[in-house]
Task: inverse folding
């Protein structure tokens, strides 16, 4: 049919602009050894729930855990930056 929009062509916004639906956020952190290392935090959205890991609660206890992003930084700031990037990438696409 003429004038119909192909749904597949439509730009889809992610459900979560904090993690872009990956569930995790990778951020750089200065280690005690003086260099930057990539660390992982989990998101507050349902996708992030699958990354809940608390080493001390595991059968094989460890000191490792995946912190919630809100413990590390302001997720609003991350979402704002991700949205800006996403918008710039998609604004010229059809169906936006
Ligand atoms: Zn998320």
Result:
């Amino acid at each position: 049919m003429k004038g119909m929009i192909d749904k597949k062509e439509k730009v889809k916004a992610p459900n979560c602009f904090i993690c872009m639906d990956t569930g995790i956020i990778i951020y750089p952190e200065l280690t005690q050894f003086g260099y930057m290392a990539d660390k992982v935090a989990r998101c507050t959205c349902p996708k992030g729930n699958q990354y809940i890991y608390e080493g001390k609660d595991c059968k094989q206890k460890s000191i490792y855990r995946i912190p919630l992003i809100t413990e590390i930084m302001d997720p609003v700031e991350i979402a704002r930056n991700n949205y800006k990037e996403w918008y710039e990438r998609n604004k010229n696409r059809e169906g936006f």
User: Anything to note?
Assistant: The chain has a mean pLDDT of 89. The helical segments are 46-49, 69-72, 75-90.
